[in-house]
C-alpha cells in the first residue's frame, strides 16, 4: 500500500472542474480523457479547488488547503482525496474562494511557493475572510521566520 495521498482530478466541460491550485505532485496517472490521479508525499501542502455547475448555474465552489497524510494516520475524509488529509483551510462560496485564490497569487508574487507557506497561515485565514476584513498578508519576513523555526525544530 502506498504512503501517498491521492487526489482525483476531474474535468467535464461546463459541469465539473476539480483541480490542484498548488502542491508538489510526486506521481501522476491518467485514468481517461477527463480524469487523472495526482499523488502527494506525506506532510506536503496542497490546494484543491472544486467547482460544479448545473443548467441553472454554479452549485459548488470550494477550496480545501490540505496537508497530505501517510496511510493509516488520522485524517479527515474529503471527496476525491484518498485517504483524506489534514484540513488547514476549507471554504465554500465563490466570494471566499476567489479571495483565497487572490491570496495565493499574492504569495506567488513574493516569489514564494504557496506549498512552502507556514501551515498556520492557511489555518487562520478563514477568521478574517468571514468578517470581510482584509486578511493579514503573508510577507517575506514572516516566511523567513517560519523557515528559521523549521530549522530550529529539527
Order of helices and strands: EEEEEEEEHHH
CA gyration radius, whole angstroms: 16 Å
Question: Mean of residue pLDDT?
Answer: 89
Number of strands: 8
Distance between the termini: 28 Å
**Structural category:** alpha+beta
Percent of residues in helices: 25-40%
Q: How many structural domains does the protein architecture include?
A: 1
What is the number of helices?
3
- Give the amount of beta strand, in percent: 35-45%
Low-confidence stretches: none
Keywords: Glycosidase, Hydrolase
Protein name: Glycosidase
InterPro entries: DUF2840
Organism: Bradyrhizobium icense
What is the secondary structure topology, with strand pairs?
Blueprint lengths: L4 E8 L3 E7 L2 E6 L4 E6 L4 E10 L2 E12 L7 E3 L2 E12 L1 H16 L9 H11 L10 H14 L1
Antiparallel strand pairs: 1-2, 1-4, 1-8, 2-5, 3-4, 5-6, 6-8, 7-8
Protein name: Glycosidase
Keywords: Glycosidase, Hydrolase
Pfam families: DUF2840
Task: Provide a descriptive summary of the structure in words.
Keywords: Glycosidase, Hydrolase. Pfam families: DUF2840. This is Glycosidase. By secondary structure, the chain is an alpha+beta fold. The chain has one domain. 27% of the residues lie in helices and 42% in strands. It contains three helices and eight strands. The radius of gyration is 16 Å and the shape is globular.
Amino acid at each position: 500500500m502506498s504512503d501517498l495521498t491521492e487526489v482525483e482530478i476531474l474535468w467535464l466541460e461546463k459541469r465539473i472542474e476539480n483541480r490542484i491550485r498548488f502542491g508538489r505532485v510526486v506521481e501522476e496517472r491518467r485514468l481517461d480523457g477527463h480524469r487523472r490521479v495526482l499523488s502527494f508525499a506525506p506532510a506536503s501542502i496542497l490546494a484543491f479547488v472544486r467547482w460544479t455547475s448545473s443548467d441553472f448555474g454554479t452549485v459548488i465552489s470550494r477550496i480545501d488547503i490540505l496537508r497530505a497524510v501517510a496511510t493509516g494516520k488520522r485524517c479527515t475524509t474529503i471527496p476525491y482525496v484518498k485517504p483524506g488529509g489534514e484540513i488547514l483551510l476549507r471554504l465554500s462560496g465563490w466570494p471566499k474562494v476567489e479571495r483565497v485564490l487572490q491570496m495565493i497569487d499574492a504569495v506567488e508574487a513574493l516569489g514564494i511557493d504557496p506549498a512552502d507557506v507556514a501551515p498556520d497561515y492557511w489555518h487562520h485565514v478563514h477568521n478574517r475572510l468571514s468578517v470581510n476584513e482584509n486578511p493579514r498578508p503573508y510577507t517575506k519576513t514572516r516566511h523567513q521566520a517560519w523557515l528559521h523555526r523549521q530549522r530550529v525544530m529539527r
